[in-house]
Amino acid sequence: AQKVTQAQTEISVVEKEDVTLDCVYETRDTTYYLFWYKQPPSGELVFLIRRNSFDEQNEISGRYSWNFQKSTSSFNFTITASQVVDSAVYFCGEGSTLGRLYFGRGTQLTVWP
Amino acid sequence: EAQVTQNPRYLITVTGKKLTVTCSQNMNHEYMSWYRQDPGLGLRQIYYSMNVEVTDKGDVPEGYKVSRKEKRNFPLILESPSPNQTSLYFCASSLAPFSGTLGYEQYFGPGTRLTVT
Question: Is the dihedral of CA A82, A50, A53, A96 positive or negative?
Fold first, then answer.
């Protein structure tokens, strides 16, 4: 069955610490895509990244980086030098080419000043 | 401005009273989808639509109906709401979910908070 697991329900760090949010997925599809969204306290969903299954290149965008490893079915997200504004719920997910999407249950990240 | 709009944003209703939550996008997107968000459960897909007149069930379709008569609109219908449908609902749209090597992000609406008493 398709499934996305975010084992960390809550993480607390102090500003400037690095933090990694884990994401493990299960899929029967050979072609699929993975994504991360951020949901700040204001409630909107903010797109962070999407990665197709055949593109295992890691991605870095400013303080954010993503590590996609097909061998371990993981798509982890690292924030370097965290800031208070990074406090949010982060959702990882997996989508099929036919339109089905699966989200993880989310990780609440709190960054303390 | 490119956006997905949902109406109403907040709704309190009673069990059994039919309601419709509208969703509209102005980006000419083929794909649209509805999700519900519940504490501790993340977002779960209710229904999705790959194009006009094409809809499919997601993970939690029971108690919901949708229609896609026009490209821009994808209303969510609760024929007989029950308290377990109290939730935060999001509509989203994108270009085709998968196209070659191109990836398209989903644009989410602001959410509709529904309470069924």
Answer: positive
Residue A13: HSE in the Cβ half-sphere, 13 Å Cα cutoff: 22
Instruction: Assign A103 to helix, strand or coil.
Output: strand
B61–chain A Cβ distance below 8 A for any pair: no
Q: pLDDT tens, position by position, for chain A (113 residues)?
A: 679 999 999 999 999 999 999 999 999 988 889 999 999 999 999 999 988 888 888 888 899 999 999 999 999 999 999 999 999 999 999 998 888 899 999 999 999 99
Token pair 């069924």 in the structure block, residue: B116
Block residue for tokens 């794909």:
B31
Identify the residue among A53, A66, A97, A103 best suited for mutation to test binding to B, counting B beta carbons within 10 A and taking the highest: A103
